[in-house]
Amino acid sequence: MSVTAATDWSRVRPQPSALARLFDWKPFLVFICMLPAAALLLVFLTYPLGLGIWLAFTDTTIGRSGRWVGLENFEWLMGDPIFWSAVFYSVFYTAVATVGKFGLGLWLALLLNNHLPFKSLLRAIILLPWIVPTVLSAIAFWWIYDPQFSIISYILVDRLGILDHNIDFLGSTWPARWSLIAANIWRGIPFVAISLLAGLQTISPSLYEAALLDGSTPWQRFRFITFPLLLPILAIVMTFSIIFTFSDFQLVYAITRGGPVNSTHLLATLAFQRGIPGGQLGEGAAIAVSMIPFLVFATLFSYFALARRKWQQGEGND
Amino acid sequence: MPNIITRRGTIGLGAGALAAATLGQGAMGQQIQRAEAQAPRLPIESGATLRMLRPVRFVQPDEEVFRDNAARFTQQTGVQIRVDFVGWEDITQQTAVTANTGAGPDMIIGFGDAPHIYVDKLIELTDVAEYLGKRYGGWMFMAEKYGKRNNSNDWIGLPFGASSGPIVWRQSAVKEAGFEGPPNDLGQFLALCRKLKQMNKPAGFALGNAVGDGNGFANWLIWSHGGYLVDEAGKVAINSRETIAALNYLKELYPTFISGTLSWGDVSNNRAYAANECWLTANGVSLYFALKNDPATAPIAEDTQHTLMPFGLIGQAPQAGLTLNAMVFKHSRYPNAAKAFLQFMLESEQYDRWLNANSGYWAHPLRAYSASAVWKSDPKIEIFRDTMDNRFWNGYKGPISEASGAATADYIMVQMCAAVAAGQSTPEQAAREAERRARRYFRG
């Protein structure tokens, strides 16, 4: 009897099933939990990227699926002056716009970091260009740069009488290029300014107090305290900014569509122009793929900048 | 209060629709001459339903009358039809997807070259086309060009209409310059533009990346000098003596334009013309109606005239048009119903109402509709009546193909002209560059 009771007792706690044991096994559980995320990445990130790269090696057009043509698209692009002009302008656009955005953005951040009346309201207003959808601001700039109806021309010609003819912002190569860069800088400043402002506010005031006691000049305080401590965040913000600027599309497409005579095509707009309206999906994909080396370079830049931050903080961790 | 959201323009259009609808039941359709012809036997499949895509309307009555005509077909045959209106930029891509996946709408009204690209995915429409041709005085030149498969008599598309962009000019300014109207002679035309510039009432044509206006002007320039992008066999022939002569002419013509045309898009000339800044340009009829329907610009409309593009060296107006071209896909389960529907829509009871509802935005493909009331409704739009008799098309003189459409969309001709106008390239360099780019598209 007692023996039977003992067996009964052990049956009250049933062996966990194989499935349950499997789910209790930590490595498997981790794997299962990551699966949805991995599937999402695979379907929405890896697949389109892979498809894009594959298309670059085919002669696919919008009308028909293509054949594998190897490097033919790239060989054609190597001999295509419009492609090289797009490469040049993409790099130039990114370089000049980034310098402009960071120069003005840092200046703005330093101003906003002071005690001003209506500080939070001002900061909110500063963000406006960044909040407005790009296409909207692009259309606004399109009007500002219009050859006939530009507000700038109107003020200079009709109101002040300084000029006797309208400014042709977008009608020739270099004015059009600079006009687009100006629009991009205007749009990018808030992002830089607000990010750098966040960085500025993490710098401990005691450092400035100590420097003041040592009799430092404002320039010295900026050069030896603000700038080095801001550098890590500066590097990250700059990496993002470079990537966004290099792959910019909306501003250029809405304002000039790459014109006049293809002089303001960025790689992204040229890829779209060739791929969708021109129907040459393979060639468009090849142009898009050729942006990858530049973007990898920007990412590596960020990697090394981050590494440098560790080295910096090794000394002055607070 | 619904009045708050109703704009003046909408009221006007609504009134127009009403007028068109009222007229449609009465007088319209009767003046269209029809010949007796044996309609093809198209037994409609039982339980048939149809789906169609077409580009969105220019004017509200277009959609209303089109839907109403489709409803009549449903009434008479019991075939349910769903018509979806798609944005102009999207219709090409949606046609591609429909053709490649073999699913989706039974019929699409696309733009000119679409049936030629997807020819092996479409059913032939020869019986319907030949019947309609016999009944309505024959198809016009552009309709045959776009409807028939290259070098054959097989119809793969049924053109529904076309729009083109002739010269739009201010009578007062051209008179003041000492001309009765834009002359057909190229030298005289240049003289007119120079005079207009001197009077500070300049001409202007789009040289920016403008799909309609930019290509319209560039094509005119080259064609009027006897040049062309590809020859009859589809071989690239842009780098020719004629092209270079045309580009040299542009070097003299361009300085007479209002400044900024190198960055003009499709709407820029409309705006400049409406603001009294540009006095002669090329555009579809939409500009005239926009001016006429707005009291503020009605005097400009009053002073506006339309004239065919100057003939130049070739004795006819070198302008192409944007064509609506209907096609039926092989994957349709009810091909007879689809063909019967297209035929029904092109019969005068339906088509003439629709033509009138469009008030001249679209011009008819069948000759008998030249007698339609719409072309008498306003003497200034009469010139659009014969749009489909133009002897030119995008990619002239080659076969209509995917490449001709792509070359247009990639602005090869426009940018060749713009590069010369901007002084970036010599005519020889620009023609060579255009040849290089065109070869890529026409590589076969």
Q: Mind explaining what this structure looks like?
A:
- The complex is a heterodimer of chains A (318) and B (444).
- Chain A is mainly α.
- Chain A has a single domain, classed as Orthogonal Bundle (MetI-like fold), CATH 1.10.3720.
- Chain A has helices at 2-12, 18-24, 26-55, 72-78, 81-112, 119-126, 128-131, 134-144, 151-159, 173-201, 205-213, 218-246, 250-255, 267-275, 281-289, 292-316.
- The longest helix of chain A has 32 residues, at 81-112.
- Chain A starts with a helix and ends with a helix.
- In chain B, 43% of the residues lie in helices and 10% in strands.
- Chain B has 444 residues and is of the alpha/beta class.
- In chain B, helix 2 links the parallel strand 1 and strand 2.
- Chain B is globular and about 70 Å long.
- In chain B, helix 1 runs antiparallel to helix 15 (348-357), helix 9 (213-224) packs across helix 17 and helix 17 runs antiparallel to helix 18.
- Chain B has 18 helices and eight strands.
- In chain B, the strands form two sheets. Chain B has a five-stranded mixed beta sheet, with helices on both faces. In chain B, strands 6-5-7 form a three-stranded antiparallel beta sheet.
- The A-B interface holds A 61-65, 76, 81, 145-149, 165-166, 168-173, 176, 256-262, 273-274, 276-280 and B 92-93, 96, 99-100, 117-118, 207-209, 211, 258-265, 268, 271-272, 275, 277-278, 402, 405-406, 409-410, 415, 418-419, 422, 424, 433, 440-441.
Mean pLDDT of chain B: 89
- Ranges of chain B with pLDDT <50 over ≥5 residues? 1-27
State the fourth-level CATH superfamily of chain A. MetI-like
Most extensive interface, residues per chain?
A-B, 35 and 38 residues
Provide the number of structural domains of chain B. Answer: 2
| CATH architecture assignment name of the largest domain in chain B | 3-Layer(aba) Sandwich
Run of helices and strands of chain B: HEHEHEHHHEEHHHHHEHHEEHHHHH
Q: Radius of gyration of chain B over alpha carbons?
A: 22 Å
Strand content of chain A: under 5%
Class by SSE composition of chain A: mainly alpha
| Molecular shape of chain A | flat
Distance between the termini of chain B: 59 Å
* CATH topology grouping of the largest domain in chain B: D-Maltodextrin-Binding Protein, domain 2
CATH structural architecture of chain A: Orthogonal Bundle
How many helices of chain B? The count is 18
Highest CATH level, the class of chain A: Mainly Alpha
CATH superfamily of the largest domain in chain B: Periplasmic binding protein-like II
- Show unreliable segments of chain A: none
Helix content of chain A: over 70%
Strand order of the largest sheet of chain B: 2-1-3-8-4
